[in-house]
Amino acid sequence: MGAGYIGRFAPSPTGPLHAGSLVAALASWLDARAHGGRWLVRIEDVDTPRCVPGADRLILDQLAACGLQPDEPPIWQSARGEAYELALDRLVASGWAYPCACTRSDIERALASQGRTKPRGGELVYPGTCRRGLDGRAARAMRMRTSFGDCATEPEITRRDRRLGTQRQHLCEAVGDFVLKRADGLWAYQIAVVVDDAAQGITDVVRGEDLADNTPRQILLQRALGLPTPRYLHTPLVLGANGEKLSKQNGAAALDLSDPLAALRKAGAVLGVHADAPDRDTWLRRATEAWRRLLA
């Protein structure tokens, strides 16, 4: 790592930053600064029905209030559809992607007929119904193939996480063929993040641990598209009173930035970063030194 390091923070504008999202933003910023690299911001707004008008600008203002300034102007995924379409065309041409006509109910019925059900909190594993063609049905979505033969013979995807250590997932069995373009025409997170990480030259992805399960899907896409795989570090989560991940979906309060230094200290504590400082900028410098020591 070093001068070639490029990291990023990629929030979805579904509301303002909260305590959990500041932890992820701070971790990615500290990692970039500790390695003498660059830090970028990408607004992941492909899921337009969930986006809140003005939330993108509010998030950028919140980051600025915390002293977390990107080294390049932010980009918006909603302006990147052409790049995603080109990637999908390549995947179709190489046999990795195919059209799917199944509804969620179709998938549930197909799994039930096989005596399989969705595990609590787990994935609804696609049974591969449309791999052999649509049988005259209209295509609804585009899917990424996770195997070209017997699922059981496919190897696990193994990766090394900088915090979690060695991680393995048998993608075909755990997830099944996954969506790249949704039935409503919107791009799925997996293809958008892979294309954009490559386009921005991202070398290191530092994000919340809740996204760790997405990494094998993204690695498969990177391999299929001939793109580099970044290093990954998944940070601890901030939990709500119910013990679940603090998020906008479970009512996480907007970040209180009446005292940015206090907010940064709380976020740093979650990461194991403790620094005494009289002001925000001094705290960020000392926190970067503390992060560097954690990495040693």
TrEMBL record:
Motif ('KMSKS' region): 245-249
This enzyme's EC code(s): 6.1.1.-
Keywords in alphabetical order: Aminoacyl-tRNA synthetase, ATP-binding, Ligase, Metal-binding, Nucleotide-binding, Protein biosynthesis, Zinc
GO biological-process terms attached to the record: glutamyl-tRNA aminoacylation; tRNA modification
Positions with a binding annotation for Zn(2+): C100, C102, Y126, C130
Top EC class of this enzyme: ligase
Protein name: Glutamyl-Q tRNA(Asp) synthetase
Source organism (scientific name): Piscinibacter aquaticus
